[in-house]
Please model this.
Amino acid sequence: MTEIARGDGEFYILKNGEKKAEITFSHDNNSNIVIEHTYVAEELGGQGIGKQLVAKVVEKARAENKKIIPQCDYAEKQLKKKEEYHDVLAST
Model:
């Protein structure tokens, strides 16, 4: 499994010193976590990296007792598709 690092407002994967995958997030005025963008380089495609990045944000939300507002289409699809994530998905 590829190691996912945490930065300021992001989780990411480095390969040869270059960011090859990332999920970026911020907090809204109600302290919800807003997922803004998910990116996975083509060379890492098909390995479930995007799902792992979404899972990291879910883990963070649960640890901080916060909800997630997905602005990124990919993250929204993953959060809605997986029933076990519905506890952290903010109501729209």
In short: The chain is about 25% helix and 35% strand. The two ends are 34 Å apart (CA to CA). The first helix runs from residue 49 to 64.
